[in-house]
């Protein structure tokens, strides 16, 4: 019995971390149709910001929840101004440039901090169910995923910024005639996406090995989840993250973690073949 | 007149390339020759993506899937047969079959560009993960132990056709590799000059119009993809022949990124550009690897960003445009009726 509770917790953990990892990419892709292949490196920067400030004596919660998103958000802002704004509407070029950017960021971090693994201790303790151990941090990640979902929904649905952002994404020319500056909206949306990604990196820092190349492990997963989810930011990402997260954990439980990944990638390919518009293109049309 | 001039120029360039390939081993020392052999094998890989991306309009983020499959197929077949002749054929057939299955899935499902990128990327990761986890005695194909993360050492290198006892010397290996590169280049140029090549470019330019003219874009793209996969597989065999070793890193995403950088730097929509881009970038990477000052990711990433932003056409088309501007006398439109000029060997996008 206890083993199934643990398995359920694992599934919950898989879904919530995948959702957190993908949310920033989904915001950027869903709203601006820019595929940010440096997404994994934004995660890595968030993790590094957390580890370095935590090891310098900053409270781990402040490092994770404030410093990481703030830092990556600023980095995202600079990158949007220097690079991305020249590439709107050029999908392939934006993919190439952000791939170059990801290599560049890896190179910079490797040069500064070296190619070694860093880490911070996991806060919150563990608890046991029967003879199995689990950690409260798993539950905290699930809570954070729910909180992030509520915040993004609230911002996009009920604030003036959200209204302007959605209007600009639907029809930039129309929004511009009504007095909105699309360039500024794109800039802040990209920075917001980067900050959310940085937060995910910060939250996952205590439970993952932190190296300059760690982003590579996430980018393909995040990419396929966002594409599998389709254009709707929240419902699409949540449904795809739930599907892939549970397939991954259950597959890993019955085989090995490696085959769990293989199974989830295969599922993603079949899903894209069956639903070329993503899950939300079929089932949650017009939702946020 | 102009046509004859162009033809003789092309024949002259081919003859020059053959002579250069023939005399290189007697001019440079062994280490440099080995490095050039590696560059030539990589250039074949560059050609495969240059063809399907530049002319077929299919941006595959996972061309290394076919490269790696070719390498592994060659290694497994060569160990089992102890003769490289059939092994090379296997190294072409396996990736081509895989490309056919994947291409059927992608193109007949009418999956769009972004999704194509995701699928090719994930397929590469699946192969990387699966091959990585094949360590142990359980994973054995015939006599070949897959070796998982450690790869397969001591793979037999190329031998004389149907004569396993005579293994090729480094010079002969160079001639083979560079010869394959030249042959693949000429074959693709010929294909692009034929009606079949025109159809491939037509589908890239406008799928709807091509299908209204009676061609099936799905089939055309699928066949382009298969040819690209076969060439990449051959490149994989050449690569394994160079190092006598194959490991899962052959499937790695960083190599996929490098191929795309070669093409972006050399010039998309040309065949010569990616070869030049490949040699230049690989030389730079090898040079950076030999010193401690800079990180190769830093340089590669910087180069890619700068080219996408400032020189999006790449080196070869930019250089060609410069030369064209300096020579106002040459007007390709001046000779022959308009039908001829539309079928001239240099359509928009070709080098």
List keywords for this structure.
heterodimer; A: about 290 residues; mainly alpha; about 75% helix; B: about 350 residues; about 5% strand
Could you walk me through the main structural features you see in this protein, from its secondary elements to its overall organization?
The complex is a heterodimer of chains A (288) and B (351). Chain A is mainly alpha-helical and 288 residues long. In chain A, 75% of the residues lie in helices and 3% in strands. Chain A has twelve helices and two strands, in the order ααααββαααααααα. Chain A has helices spanning 2-32, 39-55, 60-82, 91-113, 136-158, 160-170, 172-177, 182-204, 215-229, 233-254, 257-274, 279-282; strands spanning 126-129, 132-135. In chain B, α4 (84-107) runs antiparallel to α9 (217-243). Chain B is built from 14 helices and four strands. At the A-B interface, α4, α9 and α11 of A face α5, α10 and α12 of B.
Number of strands of chain A: 2
Helix content of chain B: over 70%
The structural class of chain A is mainly alpha
> In terms of per-residue confidence, which ranges of chain A show pLDDT below 50 for 5 or more consecutive residues?
none
Biggest sheet record of chain B: 2 strands, antiparallel
């Amino acid at each position: 019995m206890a083993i199934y509770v643990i398995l359920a917790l694992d599934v919950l953990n898989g879904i919530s971390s995948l959702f957190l990892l993908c949310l920033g990419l989904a915001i950027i892709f869903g709203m601006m149709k820019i595929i940010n292949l440096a997404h994994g490196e934004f995660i890595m920067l968030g993790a590094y910001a957390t580890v370095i400030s935590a090891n310098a004596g900053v409270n781990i919660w402040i490092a994770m929840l404030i410093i990481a998103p703030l830092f990556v958000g600023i980095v995202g802002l600079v990158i949007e101004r220097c690079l991305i704004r020249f590439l709107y509407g050029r999908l392939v070029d934006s993919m190439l440039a952000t791939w170059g950017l990801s290599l560049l960021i890896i190179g910079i971090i490797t040069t500064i901090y070296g190619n070694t693994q860093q880490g911070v201790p996991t806060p919150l303790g563990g608890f046991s169910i029967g003879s199995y151990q689990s950690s409260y941090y798993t539950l905290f990640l699930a809570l954070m995923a729910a909180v992030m979902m509520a915040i993004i929904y609230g911002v996009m649905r009920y604030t003036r910024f959200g209204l302007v952002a959605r209007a600009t994404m639907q029809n930039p020319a129309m929004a511009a005639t009504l007095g909105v500056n699309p360039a500024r909206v794109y800039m802040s949306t990209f920075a917001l996406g980067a900050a959310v990604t940085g937060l995910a990196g910060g939250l996952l820092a205590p439970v993952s090995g932190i190296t300059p190349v760690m982003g590579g492990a996430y980018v393909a997963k995040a990419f396929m989840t966002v594409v599998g989810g389709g254009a709707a930011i929240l419902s699409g990402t949540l449904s795809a993250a739930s599907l892939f997260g549970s397939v991954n954990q259950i597959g890993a439980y019955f085989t090995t973690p490696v085959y769990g990944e293989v199974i989830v990638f295969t599922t993603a390919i079949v899903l894209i073949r069956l639903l070329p518009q993503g899950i939300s293109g079929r089932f949650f049309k017009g939702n946020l | 007149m102009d046509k004859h001039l162009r033809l003789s120029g092309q024949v002259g360039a081919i003859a020059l390339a053959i002579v250069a390939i023939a005399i290189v081993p007697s001019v440079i020392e062994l280490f440099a020759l080995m490095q050039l052999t590696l560059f030539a094998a990589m250039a074949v890989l560059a050609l495969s993506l240059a063809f399907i991306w530049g002319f077929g309009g299919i941006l595959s983020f996972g061309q290394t899937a076919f490269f790696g499959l070719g390498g592994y197929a060659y290694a497994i077949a060569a160990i089992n047969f102890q003769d490289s002749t059939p092994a090379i054929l296997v190294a072409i057939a396996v990736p081509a079959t895989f490309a056919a299955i994947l291409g059927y899935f992608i193109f007949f499902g009418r999956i769009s560009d972004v999704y194509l990128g995701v699928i090719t990327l994930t397929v590469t990761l699946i192969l990387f993960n699966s091959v990585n986890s094949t360590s142990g005695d359980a994973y054995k194909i015939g006599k070949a132990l897959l070796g998982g993360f450690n790869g397969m050492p001591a793979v037999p290198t190329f031998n004389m056709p149907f004569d396993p006892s005579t293994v090729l010397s480094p010079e002969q290996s160079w001639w083979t590799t560079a010869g394959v590169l030249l042959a693949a280049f000429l074959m693709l140029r010929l294909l692009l000059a034929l009606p079949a090549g025109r159809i491939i470019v037509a589908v890239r330019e406008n799928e709807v119009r091509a299908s209204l003219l009676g061609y099936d874009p799905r089939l055309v793209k699928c066949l382009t993809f298969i040819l690209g996969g076969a060439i990449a597989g051959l490149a994989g065999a050449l690569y394994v022949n160079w190092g006598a070793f194959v490991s899962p890193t052959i499937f790695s995403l960083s190599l996929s990124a490098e191929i795309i950088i070669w093409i972006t730097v050399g010039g998309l929509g040309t065949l010569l550009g990616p070869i030049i881009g490949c040699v230049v970038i690989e030389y730079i990477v090898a040079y950076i690897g030999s010193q401690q000052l800079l990180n190769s990711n830093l340089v590669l990433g910087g180069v890619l960003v700068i080219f996408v932003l400032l020189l999006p056409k790449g080196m070869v088309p930019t250089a060609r445009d410069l030369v064209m501007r300096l020579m106002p006398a040459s007007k390709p439109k001046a000779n022959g009726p308009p039908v001829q000029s539309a079928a001239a060997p240099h359509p928009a996008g070709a080098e």
